[in-house]
Specification:
CATH topology of the largest domain: Butyryl-CoA Dehydrogenase, subunit A, domain 3
Order of helices and strands: HHHHHHHHHEEHEEEE
CATH class of the largest domain: Mainly Alpha
Shape: elongated
Strand content: 5-15%
CATH architecture of the largest domain: Up-down Bundle
Number of strands: 6
Distance between the termini: 38 Å
Structural class: alpha+beta
Number of helices: 10
Number of domains: 2
Strand order of the largest sheet: 2-1-6-5-4-3
Largest sheet: 6 strands, mixed
Amino acid sequence: MTDLFTEHRALLFGIAYRMLGSVADAEDMVQDTYLRWCRQDAGAIVTPKAWLVSALTRRCIDELRSARKRREEYVGPWLPEPIVDSTAPAPDEVAAMADSLGTAFLLMLEELSPVERAVFLLREAFDYDYAEIAHVVDKTEAACRKMVSRARARLAGRPPAPARPTEQAERIVQRFLAATATGELQDLLALLTDDAVLYTDGGGRVPSARRPVVSASHIGRFFVSLRERGLAGAEAKLVRVNDGVGVLMRRRDGVVSVTSFAFAGDRIRAIYTVSNPEKLRHVRFEEGN
């Protein structure tokens, strides 16, 4: 039973993380599924993978329903917990499409209901057929097709940028770090699209903008001001965040943050910074790494 579960563990984590946007909650769902699995009669389960995916997805739907109210009461913008390097279990290599791990994509999924989110993810990110999905969510195949069609329409026009790290993306982020370190406003403005958006998630525990900061000029001035208030002298390093290029930073006051980006050509169109310590419990800033 344990070997069968271990074989599919990465897939289960990949589904749970995309459903919940939380490393800790995804781990809890995987562990809960394992405990349920251990209580089953292995001989009575025809397809272990299907049983595991169904059990986990249904638990995630229930968890997401209860989490919606907590997110409505959340202080400031809510962002998913970042996956930094290999600090969390790696999503399955076969089905883990890079763009379905990106922060922009995960935020778009917040517009869908829990069941719609499950159906859309199983179809678009994990390539499940509609018969399999219908069994998981206890809906008809026709209903699942309609959910995917409606979700595609709702998310149309807001495609996430490819998340895979590229040399161009790394160069842009390095220039961004240099500009924030010096506080040169014009250098910052040159790196941002005119309609760029900055999301800062401190969760009410760390000072951050309570609303998204919109436009290059406002974002540029925000970082110039932040440098004067504590960003100067911060330690920063390029890391992989949700399978894309990102930044792990520790300020002189000890605040740790993880930042990811979305790009439009050679400019940054969105910045996502998580500094809520509750969401970074799995992240370590180690010297020399």
